[in-house]
Amino acid sequence: MADFPFRWVDGFTLGAEYRAVLRPGEMVRDRSRRLRRLPRFFYEVPSWEAAHDTDLTQHFKVWEFIDVDVRETELLRTAWPRYVPCAVAALAAQLELLRREVGTYVHISANGGYRSPAHALSSYASTHCWGTAVNLYRIGDDWLDDEKTLGRYSRIVRELIPGIWVRPWGHGAGEADDHLHLDLGYTEAVPHDAPGEVEGGAGPFPGIDAGVAETTEEVA
Amino acid sequence: MISEADELEERVRRIRQEAGARSVAVAWYDYETRTPWHYCGDEWFHAASTIKVPILVGVFGAAHHGRLPLNSRVHVRNRFLSVADGRPFRVDSGRDANSRVHAHLGKTMKVRELARHMIVTSSNLATNLLVDLVGLDSLRASLKELGIEGIVLARGVEDERAFDEGVNNMVTANGLVQVLRHIEEGTAFSVPASARMLEILHDQEFRSGIPAGVPDDARVANKTGEISTVAHDAAIVYLPDRKPYVLVVLTEWDRGASGRSDTIARISRAVYRHLTDGEARDG
Q1: Whole-complex ipTM
Q2: pTM for this structure?
């Protein structure tokens, strides 16, 4: 991984109140009831000023990926440090490709970057909980809220970024009609010198000892 | 011998007749004489934007109970689900009332900012964001907790499919008087909360109804409401050297009828004269 001003942390070593909302390494079910393992490794963002001032890429700052509203848990809204999965750097790199291609501002919506599993809008193993998803509501002067505009930018993204997943246009569950949702799937970034999968950790191996976490009913 | 109250009723009827309104309801509570009065005060009307006052009370109720700090930030998103069929709809972004909130699309605004825009500029976008956030059940529970009747909070605003199915927010003049009395008396959850709501109502920008019927030195905290077939105003009127009164005027019209605000202003003037005995200062 490239040098980055924030240190990475092993979620297993965080205090209980953070582990309760970040749920590192825990298993959750997606919409098709397949099990997905939540990220274990996070960047530690020490303050709002640091988030605001630190570049992830040339055109994207850290804060844009952690901007949440009152639907996020109080701990991750009001306290610092905050934590964002290390895979966010890969997402930012892909978005930078888009930014350079379109040559204008690419706006990430509030609640459109990382959301913790405890966020009221997180359901069915939302990839936002992996830090690998982003909701764009505007690109330059184009509001991404109609089929034609969303279709145009979807095509650009697919041609530009290999392996990217774009939420289809529509009004139903799993579709989008007022933003462009892009994601890299259930990707986790594990730092080179991070502990291995079996050793280390501050407790039982999540997902086996703690059982499988079920999601709640989807919030529109 | 005809009483003053009967005279007022007769005057209201005459104003209604002259204006050609289909229905009129008037209710007031006077803190100076500690008397209530109403004309068709329990008749139901489509609330239009007057429902935003009960919603404001509900938002402060949620804050009072610790569910929603007023400084919390809310994602501004123009997408809501119809209570009729669950399909999405949007608030018309072309309305001036929504422009300042609309300018924050994709970003966040504080709950207290949205509450302010809901009332001061009658922003429908702000209203629906708050209804979505707090929830209809919670809003209704707040009104019930205060013992308010005569208000039916059924949905957000601009939900056209719900409108087509007859699912509408409804109010009575007496119901809105109850709401405003709680705010004036400091019993809308707490004295500070009530004071904040009152401050917001004082800054409301639409002044051609009840405020237009009282002298210039009166201060009026009010909320208007208007759609194609109704025009309303609900207010607390503060006069110098006199305790205030709460006044609600609800009117229903044929589509395309004119003179609606003027009719409310005339009724406001009639009530003002009735309560103050037409003193010289009314010019």
Answers
A1: 0.88
A2: 0.92
Rounded Cα–Cα distance for residues A201 and B106 (Å): 38
Residue A167 has pLDDT above 70, yes or no: yes
DSSP per-residue letters across chain B: ---HHHHHHHHHHHHHHHHT-SEEEEEEEETTTTEEEEESTT--EE-GGGGHHHHHHHHHHHHHTTSS-TT-EEE----EE-TTTS-EE---TTSGGGHHHHTTTTSEEEHHHHHHHHHHS--HHHHHHHHHHH-HHHHHHHHHHTT--SEE----SS-HHHHHTT---EE-HHHHHHHHHHHHHT-SSSHHHHHHHHHHHHT----SSGGGGS-TT-EEEEEEEE-SSEEEEEEEEE-TTS--EEEEEEEE--TT---HHHHHHHHHHHHHHHHHTT-GGG-
List pLDDT tens digits, range B127-170.
Answer: 999 999 999 999 999 999 999 999 999 999 999 999 999 999 99
**Count of domains for chain A:** 1
The answer to whether B88 contacts A171, with C-beta atoms less than 8 Å apart, is yes
Whether omega before A117 lies within 30 degrees of 0, making that bond cis, reads no
Q: Is residue A212 part of a domain?
A: no
Of A69, A138, A178, the CB nearest to B108: A69
Please give the average per-residue pLDDT across B1-17, as a whole number.
88
Residues of chain A with Cβ-Cβ distance to B79 below 8 Å are 177-178
Tokens of B144: 């019930």
* pLDDT reported for residue B40: 98
By residue range, what is the domain housing residue A16? 8-187
**Pairwise CA distance, residues B87 & B110, whole Å:** 27
Domain presence at residue A139: yes
Planar angle of CA A185, A187, A189, nearest 5 degrees: 160
- In this complex, do A67 and B108 lie within 8 Å of one another by their Cβ atoms? yes
**Which of A202-211, B132-141, B204-213, B245-254 is the least confident region?**
A202-211
**CA-to-CA distance for A135 and A128, rounded, in angstroms?**
9
Q: Which residues are CB-neighbours of B63 under 8 A, at least 6 positions away?
A: B69, B70, B111, B193
Confirm whether A192 is domain-assigned: no
Mark out the alpha helices in chain A (DSSP H runs): 16-22, 48-53, 74-78, 88-102, 147-160
Counting every residue written for chain B, the total comes to: 283
Tens of pLDDT, residues B206-244: 889 999 999 999 999 999 999 999 999 999 999 999 999
Residue A209 included in any domain:
no
Name every chain B residue with its beta carbon within 8 A of the beta carbon of A107: 106
